[in-house]
Amino acid sequence: MSLLQTLLQRQAIRAYDGRPIEKEKIEQLLEAAILAPNDRLREPWHFYVIQGAAKERFNQLAQDFLLERFPTKPHLVEESMKNVLATPLIIVATSQIIEGDEASSLDNDYAVSCAIHSMWLMASELGLGFVWRTRGVGLARDERLKAFLSLSDQEKVIGSLFIGYPTDEATPRTVRKPITQKTTWVE
Ligand SMILES: Cc1cc2nc3c(=O)[nH]c(=O)nc-3n(C[C@H](O)[C@H](O)[C@H](O)COP(=O)(O)O)c2cc1C
């Protein structure tokens, strides 16, 4: 498949059929991730693979978060939890914070973002549904997730990657504005 075809095929897929993901496929995602460009070869990423019993503990975290965030919206909590429960695999990607060096820390975040995009493309090629979550049940900015993973103060969550085999229902494709609206040819 050409690179353009791969890029066109990639999309955020949030509905999964619950089937577990084979270990070889998880390893292929991780192998793709670590090829990402990164400043001064710091390789500033770490990946936490959450499945099985750990995923069940994550489900509880997500439910606690949702009940706290939406105390008066039980239907919303239930609907969100359906998605979480049908997700067999979550990979949390973290970036290394360099104390006293904000610029390098930011570059580390960019590198991890590149790694996540590589994983997303690889997931698409492997027929896996994938979405990068930061908000909501992604818990990327929630202290609960840091505690759950026993993250050090030098680790920052860049994304919780929800992964599963897609359901039969097709996800509508998103569209982009034309490049003319997003480009200035500086003269
Ligand atoms: C940094 C980042 C954070 C995101 N956070 C969320 C999220 O919290 N929840 C979610 O459902 N999707 C999230 N997404 C996925 C986007 O919503 C999705 O990529 C966007 O709607 C475009 O759709 P497409 O990826 O299918 O083209 C995130 C994407 C990025 C790059």
TrEMBL record:
Names of required cofactors: FMN
Pfam families: Nitroreductase (PF00881)
Keywords assigned: Flavoprotein, FMN, NAD, NADP, Oxidoreductase
Molecular function as annotated in GO: oxidoreductase activity
InterPro entries: NAD(P)H_nitroreductase, Nitroreductase, Nitroreductase-like, YdjA-like
Nitroreductase domain segment(s): 8-165
UniProt similarity note: Belongs to the nitroreductase family.
Protein's recorded name: Putative NAD(P)H nitroreductase YdjA
Provenance organism: Brevibacillus laterosporus LMG 15441
Gene designation per UniProt: ydjA_1
